[in-house]
Amino acid sequence: MSVANHDALPADRFDVAAVRAQFPVLADDGPGRTLTYLDSAATAQKPQAVIDALEDFYTREYASVHRGVYALSVRSTQRFEAVREKVCRLLHTSDPREVVFTRGTTEAINLVATSWGGQNVSAGDEIVVTQLEHHSNIVPWQLLCERTGARLRVAPIGLDGCVEVDAFEALLGPRTKLVALAHVSNALGTRLPVAALCQLARSRGITSLVDGAQAVPHGSVDVLAIGCDFYAFSAHKVFGPTGTGVLWGRRDLLDAMPPYQGGGSMIRSVSFEGTTYADAPQRFEAGTPDVAGVIGMGAALDWLEEIDREAAAAFECELLRYASEALEAIPGLHIFGSDPEKVGVLSFSLDCAHPHDIATILDREGVAIRAGHHCAQPLMKFYGVPAMARASLALYSDRSDIDALVSALETTREIFS
Ligand code: PMP
């Protein structure tokens, strides 16, 4: 779709206009009605292919999965189960039994904290996270610590927003049971060296979980090369529907884990004398799943497979550089995080205005950004700010978005100075 010329530099191979044209919400609807969407780290917009797949499923193919013997349900089940294979291709792995469908990253992490954590973590044990984690990768571990008497340890970051690897390693000890790390920070765009960090954990027999919510939308992910034990992501950030996501887990670990929630679909047999459970992944999928959501996620992954991800990442890298230079030229503007490997997130402050005021003025100019703590309050505390303004990019972002952002920020400065 976006491969114009294989000899061209990767960034030039990427046809952003062709990608953008597939997102109806971004269509140029005339003066004052065009959306500059720079909140893709919160959630990504949907291409027509995903919208069509959802409509088609509800219009022609809708039925519950796993239980019906009639053709419609069999077809629905096949399409639903086929999405596990698509997830395997996305994560460069091969066993669909390692793919658990969840409501999203948050539920995937809670599943591990409750099921694996309940079985493997006890009083005095330690769980290591980093200073830049999203609340979804902090609070489930705090709850586990409250339940078990384990302790949460926090690996520090530098002012550049990068994890200090030596300090991380120094935290790993005989009581460390798990490290839980963002692959990419939603608030800074920092790309953590997860393969190296997971290797440090693995060499000490420590289990690892990687929160991939922000990584999957920005480039190729290979869970086997990372060497983690669990990997989580959300469909809605990767151009699919809300309400669905994935926990990928190593099969030996999933097979040994107790159920997370009880109900239909997760059992082998139920009696009042005793219930036995289905194998993974069904053991972790109690209740009627979000069938349409999973099929929509499959459509998003199909759509993504058509994209030249290397070219898209190179394009994004150039766009991020363009955006960083343009923002840094604005007097009084400060960008948080300077990881050279960072992906398309620009969190910033403007010395004349509060982040919420910035976002409000920008909205009037048709520019959607996020202001707040970005579900990373410990990170805000580290930088000594209550909130940050954040512009975030996706495959459909282009220079026109950045130009609109810069012009709206100039308006903000005029209003507040
Ligand atoms: N981790 C990170 C790094 C995130 O950015 C997010 C979403 N903002 C989450 C976890 C939680 O994802 P969800 O709300 O889709 O479960």
Descriptive labels:
Aspartate Aminotransferase, domain 1, 417 residues, alpha/beta, globular, Aspartate Aminotransferase, domain 2, 40% helix, binds 4'-deoxy-4'-aminopyridoxal-5'-phosphate, 7-stranded mixed β-sheet, 2 domains
Number of strands: 15
Q: End-to-end distance, in Å?
A: 46 Å
State mean pLDDT (0 to 100 scale).
95
SSE topology string: HHEHHEHEHEHEHEHEEHEEHHEEHEEHEH
Strand content: 15-25%
Summed up, the domain count is 2
Rg, nearest Å: 22 Å
What is the chains' assembly state? single chain
The chain-level structural class is: alpha/beta
Name the hetero compounds present: 4'-deoxy-4'-aminopyridoxal-5'-phosphate
**What is the CATH homologous superfamily assignment of the largest domain?**
Type I PLP-dependent aspartate aminotransferase-like (Major domain)
Helix content: 25-40%
Major sheet description? 7 strands, mixed
Net shape: globular
Low-confidence runs of at least 5 consecutive residues: none
Give the SSE layout.
Elements: H1 10-13, H2 16-20, E1 36-37, H3 48-61, H4 71-90, E2 99-102, H5 105-120, E3 126-130, H6 139-148, E4 151-155, H7 165-171, E5 176-182, H8 194-202, E6 207-211, H9 223-226, E7 230-234, E8 245-249, H10 251-256, E9 267-269, E10 276-277, H11 291-305, H12 309-328, E11 333-336, E12 345-350, H13 355-364, E13 367-368, E14 370-372, H14 377-383, E15 388-392, H15 399-416
Parallel strand pairs: 1-13, 3-4, 3-5, 5-6, 6-7
Antiparallel strand pairs: 2-8, 7-8, 9-10, 11-12, 12-15, 14-15
Helix pairs in contact: 3-11, 4-11, 5-6, 12-15, 13-15
The structure holds 4'-deoxy-4'-aminopyridoxal-5'-phosphate.
